[in-house]
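Repro:
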Amino acid sequence: MGNPRLKLAYMVNTPDILSPNSLGYHGSIEKSTSLLKELGYDGIELTTAEARSFDWAPIEKAISAAGLDVPLVCTGEVFGQSGIGLAAPDAKKRALAIERIKQIVDFAAIWGANVNIGRSRWHYCDGTPKQDTEKWAVDAFRELADYAQGYNVAIALEPIAFHVLNFINSTQDGLEWIARVGRPNFKMMLDVYHMNIDDRTSIEQSIHQAVGEDAVVHVHLCDTNRKPPGYGHMDFKGVIDALKKSGYKGYLSAEVFNYPDQEAAIRRSAEALRPLL
């Protein structure tokens, strides 16, 4: 019967996200889930900064009514909106970031979703020794992985290109950190935008390497300029073929700029990506 096709999700903002520039669809959860269902998406990826600040019940209800999966909850706005991070020099900011992400694990556990760690890990800072930043990061990664293990949730480290974040930039860096943290549910997610810039090998080679090491639990797709497919030069067929050949069976999620507007972006992503799955 062959292998089942890969599944596609789209990023949607929860009600606590304030910036209209945050990546993902902005709108009521009822409208978002209805549109995803109409366009043939299989799942919804949620992005949140403060999960305890809004009512979870309407979100559960709308997602269930649309028959969507929730493969991942994104934490980038813990840093972007709240200005805190797991390896911040300020101990109070570190503690608050850990608590916020534990709350997001609680939220994600409703659906058995994984939780990403991208910008929320913080960055190397002038005046702070790199070994201190790395120690705080390791300690936080282990604490979060141990907490999430009780919910059968994986923590998905996201390598991010240097021009965005100067700490853990390539797929190869991510693999080194997975080994360093040493927790069975501390894995990695891939984002082709960042891979295209800072990976030490081609995107396809990095995919085969990381999936071959059983390290990948989620993948973000966008064009080379973070816009929806068709506005840059990303070889989406090559990427998706590499994922299939490597044996990847997790979710793909479109994380794109709302270009030229969010309605066009969500529709264009579905039209371009679903036929390749």
